[in-house]
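Annotated sample (chain length 586).
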Amino acid sequence: MDVSDPASTPPDPFDGIAETLDRMAMAGIARLTGGVSPATLALSAMDWWIHLAVAPGKQLQLAEKAHRKLIRWIDYAARCAREGEPCPAIEPLPQDHRFDDPAWSQMPYGAISQMFLLTQQWWHAATTGVPGVSRHHEDIVSFMARQMLDVLAPSNFIASNPILQQRLIETGGRCLADGWQYFIEDFERQARGEPPVGAERFPVGEKVAVTPGKVIYRNDLIELIQYAPTTAEVRPEPVLIVPAWIMKYYILDLSPENSLVRWLTGQGFTVFMISWRNPDAEDRNTDMADYLRMGPLAALDAVCDITGADAVHAAGYCLGGTLLSIAAAELAHRDDRRLCTVTLFAAQTDLSEPGELGLFIDEAQVNLLGGATWSQGYLDSSQMGGAFQILRSNDLVWSRVLKTYLMGEREEMTDLMAWNSDGTRLPHAMHSEYLQRLYLDDELAKGRFEVDGHIVTLAAVRQPLFVVGTERDHVAPWRSVHRIHLLSDAEITFVLTSGGHNAGIVSEPGHNGRHYRQYCRPAGEPPIPPDDWEVRAAIHEGSWWPAWGDWLANFSGAPVPPLPLGNAKQGYAAICDAPGTYVKQR
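Output written by the structure step:
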């Protein structure tokens, strides 16, 4: 045996024990911290503090800013005494609606809210622009400062919130009693793992996910639903939709009036939908290769066998779109031309700039989450949901605390809210692999993503692309989604729609207040920077769905009579009615 050759050295018998102990430790820490790495927080704070301590220029600048803001606040308070309602010293950010009510302009609440906003602005200056601090650590420190300030916002306290005080007077304090009951009810439901109050009004298959269809294929990972045609003729190219595996598919088939699936069938398309199985601990070793092979690739085979179509329109939502783009690259590697178009809804292909979600993704964080998922075999939806709520704590946490638990007003449940509470799990292997390969290493964008031992690249994808980003997306920021222009020379029709990650996609025609921008970059032309794209893109009022329908029609053949659901001769007899069984798994 050549002891100089590491490959010939026998494994250390304690390696397995050491790895197990480390993972157990990470799992315990994850439970205590809610899945947030204390190492990441500590390193970020230390990086910021040390560099601030040795930056006298930055310290002087912050001292001057503090003095200037204090003078502005004193001036505002003095003008309040003279004029009653003077112009504010500072305006809230456009997305901050905590102080919209006119009562916040009355003294002393105007002075309190203005002091808070000035302090918030100062802390942003203090946590950004410190020389020497890494970008990732700066983002984390700035984010954590915002979280702490959100906790201390005057809108959260009875003594400093005039609207809450008025509510107390109007109800004689009853609102606090009602809010306490709501808190106990929510706490008990969460402890029992039950959906929130009102979600029972939207049972799957009865109120949501009700578009008629059949499950015509099933494997250990997906059920494939074919929806019944609603028009006398259909386009010969079917539409295959790949939803994210971290969500139930019926975000695209909510109530009949806002179902994208129902709308598509009404436009004369044959629609197929993947419904992912909700994995459990037994699926801990299911990885990305399994999701690719048993997901979009298996579904594409089934769709073509059932319909006899030579070409398919494929659409993917969120991480389902990322997986679809990998599938398209793999098919290009095989010279398989069954995809005639590819559509991506709020889906990132270059994850080098994932937005604030990237705060929860670094080596320490991935190590911690890897230990947590290793111990239970999967990542639970509540763990993912907590991270998303923190990203929008004003809207999703503190506004709810104020409205529900202090003002005693429970928000009415909607179909979208009920869907959002119907989460899925992620297998340990898949979760660890996609965090490492797609986020940390960004293999897909860098042209290093391997499938079955060979590299696949989006540069090989030549089909026309229809890519949708949303203006207020905290999960897949539109500028990150837009970076697909750097990865593919294909024709790209990019649409930027109003709304967020979910509401921007569920944007049915007739929905009030909707608008979108659209611009097509022809095949072979240079990439368009996001700012230039905004200048070129035409603004349209209303839903973007009709624009997508017209785009699909342009790449489709002449309408033909619809086919029956399934194809028993090809081995795809109908198994059960839509929405199937996998979507109902909890």
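Annotation: Residues 56-83 form the longest helix (28 residues).
Annotation: The chain has a mean pLDDT of 90.
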